[in-house]
């Protein structure tokens, strides 16, 4: 009788344990059966974004760097080196979309989180297409024996049309337009990404005529203009002018909290969580970062303060640095170290001209760096990193309309003119230039 009683107790205990929820892992019904579960799952997608990286432009043609990635160096790439041909993030997204079907949640809730997933799938594929061109389009989680694992690349048109469909779904089904922390994907951010992607694709097809897709470029450019206009028409953002023309531009990149009037989405640092970035270390070190320096060709694009091109001066090629930075677009002095730039060392301001052990060209960036030298020696920066800004929306709209040949003077004034006013430029604010 004793043994029988002991067996009964063990059996009941075992049943009770089977009914308990696991503490360190979770089940599919627990994740996909509650909004909290959907939110926690979709938070994992944010790792796809560049986050607190300030080296976003390190491969741009307006920067001189000490080295470039192996995958674009002739003869330097080998099979054992990473090229970015990785698909784990896509599987994570597709698995969520395929399983977000629990009827315990309302269709509106499920659509909101599927919209978030499809936003990130569009972002993922845009990065892949920029790097590789044609890639395979995969819209479901694949089993280890799925033949699609060995499928070839799909056409650019199929992939980018699918990206556009994902963006349109996200815009239609995300529940909120914007939120105050500027750290969450919203309808406005989805429109901003659509604006960016469609402008890229429209101009790529227009000028890469070897693709034979130039006949479709106008469609993409119209999408870019419409997505930009959707954000503009909400009147929820403005160009930051706090601090005056001499500092307002740079404040967008050096403020700890995102400048919410202009920034749509940012990666936010938090000292208490030890979530910091390495902007100073990357941009002011001759060894840690890429020693990235602006090229003179890029610096020449900054207008004179009266709105005329700097290169109109017949002596611009031989002008000394101290002279070429005078009377220029005020964003220039907020982008590079100029003659009167100062930094803080031990609480004291000291002159800080360009340091040639940190820069190849002498045009040393300060756009994302903090002026206190304390931040130079590691991942210590507390400033937020803007990923989508209203300024980009205005530029995308103006460029798309200009490429279409439909940009009006009033549209120029409300976009390019607005940005020039922030920069202290006095000319060319209300009338677009004529092109011969």
Structure notes:
Helix 5 packs antiparallel against helix 6, helix 7 runs antiparallel to helix 8 and helix 7 runs parallel beside helix 13. Helices cover 40% and strands 5% of the residues. It is built from 15 helices and 6 strands. Strand 4 and strand 5 form a beta hairpin. It starts with a helix and ends in a 14-residue tail after the last helix. 33% of the residues are buried. It is mainly alpha-helical and 436 residues long.
Question: Key terms for this structure?
Answer:
single chain; about 425 residues; mainly alpha; two-stranded antiparallel sheet; 15 helices
Provide a brief overview of the structure.
The protein has 436 residues and is mainly alpha-helical. It has helices at residues 2-19, 28-32, 35-43, 88-99, 107-132, 156-173, 187-207, 217-232, 248-254, 279-284, 296-299, 321-324, 390-404, 409-414, 416-422; strands at 63-64, 263-267, 293-294, 342-345, 348-351, 385-389. The longest helix has 26 residues, at 107-132.
Strand fraction equals: 5-15%
Quickly count the helices. 15
Q: What number is the mean pLDDT?
A: 91
Quaternary structure: single chain
Strand order across the largest sheet: 1-3
Return the structural class: mainly alpha
Helix content: 25-40%
Largest sheet: 2 strands, antiparallel
Low-confidence stretches at least 5 residues in length (pLDDT < 50)? none
Number of strands: 6
| General form | globular
H and E order: HHHEHHHHHHEHEHHEEEHHH
Distance between the termini: 104 Å
How big is the Rg? 26 Å
């Amino acid at each position: 009788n004793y043994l029988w009683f002991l067996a009964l107790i063990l059996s009941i205990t075992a049943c009770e344990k089977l009914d308990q929820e696991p503490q360190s892992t979770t089940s599919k019904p627990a994740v996909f059966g509650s909004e909290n579960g959907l939110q926690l799952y979709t938070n994992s997608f944010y790792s796809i974004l560049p986050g607190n990286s300030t080296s976003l432009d390190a491969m741009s043609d307006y920067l001189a760097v000490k080295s470039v990635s192996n995958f674009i160096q002739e003869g330097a790439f080998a099979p054992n080196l990473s090229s970015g041909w990785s698909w784990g993030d896509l599987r994570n997204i597709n698995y969520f979309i395929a399983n977000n079907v629990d009827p315990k949640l309302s269709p509106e809730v499920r659509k909101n989180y599927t919209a978030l997933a499809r936003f990130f799938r569009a972002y993922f594929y845009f990065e892949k297409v920029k790097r590789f061109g044609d890639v395979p389009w995969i819209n479901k989680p694949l089993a280890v024996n799925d033949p699609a694992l060995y499928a070839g690349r799909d056409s650019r048109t199929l992939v980018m049309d699918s990206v556009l469909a994902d963006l349109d779904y996200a815009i239609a089904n995300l529940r909120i337009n914007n939120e105050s922390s500027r750290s969450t994907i919203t309808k406005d951010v989805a429109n901003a990404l659509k604006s960016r992607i469609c402008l890229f694709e429209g101009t790529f097809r227009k000028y890469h005529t070897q693709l034979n897709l130039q006949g479709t470029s106008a469609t993409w450019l119209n999408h870019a203009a419409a997505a930009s206009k959707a954000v503009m028409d909400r009147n929820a953002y403005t160009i930051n002018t706090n601090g005056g023309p001499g500092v307002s531009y740079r404040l967008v990149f050096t403020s700890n909290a995102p400048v919410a009037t202009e920034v749509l989405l940012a990666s936010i640092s938090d000292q208490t969580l030890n979530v910091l970035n390495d902007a100073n270390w990357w941009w002011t070190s001759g060894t840690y970062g890429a020693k990235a320096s602006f090229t003179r060709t890029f610096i020449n694009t900054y207008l004179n303060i009266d709105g005329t091109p700097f290169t109109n001066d017949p002596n611009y090629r031989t002008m000394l640095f101290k002279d070429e930075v005078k009377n220029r677009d005020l964003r220039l002095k907020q982008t590079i170290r100029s003659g009167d730039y100062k930094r803080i060392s031990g609480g004291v301001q000291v002159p800080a001209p360009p340091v040639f052990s940190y820069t190849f060209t002498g045009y040393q960036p300060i756009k994302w760096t903090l002026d206190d030298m304390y931040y130079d020696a590691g991942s210590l920066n507390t400033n937020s990193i803007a990923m989508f800004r209203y300024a980009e929306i205005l530029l995308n709209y103006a460029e798309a309309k200009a490429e279409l040949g439909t940009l009006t003077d009033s549209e120029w004034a409300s976009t390019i003119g607005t940005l020039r006013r922030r920069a202290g430029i006095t000319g060319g604010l209300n009338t677009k230039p004529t092109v011969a």
